[in-house]
Known about the structure:
The protein is of the alpha/beta class. The chain has 15 helices and ten strands. β4 (about 210), α11 (about 220-225) and β5 (about 230-235) form a beta-alpha-beta unit.
Amino acid sequence: MSQLHDLCKFPTRPITVEYVSQLRSYLSSGVPATYTVEEAYNYENRVETEPATATTPLHLICTHVPTDLDEGETAVVDEMCDVLFEYGAGWSFTDVNNETPGCVLIRRGLKDWALYEKLVDAGVRAELLLRKVSEYDVEFVEEGEVVASEEAAAPSHNQQAFLESKLEYVDDALVTKERKDGVMMSWESDIMQLAADSITVNGSDDLCILNIGFGMGIIDTMLQQKNPRKHYICEAHPDVLAKMKQDGWFEKANVVVLSGRWQDELDKLLSQGTVFFDGIYYDTFSEHYSDMLELFDYVVGLLKPDGVFSFFNGLGADRQVIYEVYKKLVQIDLENYGLRCRFKEMRVPPELFKKGGESIWDDIKRSYWSCPIYYHPEATFMDFS
Ligand SMILES: C[S@@+](CC[C@H](N)C(=O)[O-])C[C@H]1O[C@@H](n2cnc3c(N)ncnc32)[C@H](O)[C@@H]1O
């Protein structure tokens, strides 16, 4: 343990500006703001192996900050975090409990503190910066340098592998046959209802809607109940398209099935320039945030001026603090397209958190959800918000 780490455990009260001066003096003398307890231990004990976990000064602050701070002390703790960020502290390092500093605050019931918001904002800044840096990074990657990890090549992450993998409809879920990745699960039905209501809110006799990603057809069944004039469904996977055929979706008078990836199908639709939607919903699989950013180009081209765009918001949902970072990030990104995004909150079923005993995730390879609240997004053009 170093002096920096000791300081971040608040050994004395009250917490005065002296803490900030001390912190500044350590950092300006060259101690990194990301210097971990594990590194300090290894240094003291001459251990040479790279530590697997990272307990940073921010972790210590979040773990040890007293809960009975007065106003002056709160301001000092806030400033200490600002100073750490100024010197390059990271928001996403994980400690021995696999917790980020934000996770520690959530566990301690301090999510309402301004400190938590600071960590989320740091995450947003870091993600934006990373995006900029990786744009340039591409130029420096030598051919053959990128070795795809097993995870990156898996159907859950790789669109081509997904489209080539066999799918299986089982009780309450659609999964990849081989790996049992959950493509869609019926616990999401309430979320689909929220979405179906959102994108048909301007419902009239003339309702024209687009859903991207059929999956189990949960939202499309709900959308049919709204009697749309035209209901477009874009779906890329051959097994899902076969199921849609079997269930008669191709024969429905008001349904147009766009068989293929949205990247190709929406391009054609946009070029036609004749179809515009009251509502668009996006819920695919094995795509990334960068794909959704590309989709925004089509959304602004295909959405009516008073239309509503929504999407399945699972961005970063396997860790609450990351979920909140993406919530802010997507708002910023949509604003760049002239869309204002608001969120409705919905409690997700408690079975999702059940540890031990029977669980929703029992037959699924990896649980993709661990947040108590779902943030349902509704984006509309700013002029009409
Ligand atoms: C999570 S499921 C959709 C679930 C759906 N919202 C429901 O209510 O059942 C995702 C679907 O998106 C499809 N999909 C994945 N990538 C796609 C793409 N690029 N274009 C069109 N569909 C895609 C998958 O084949 C899958 O059927």
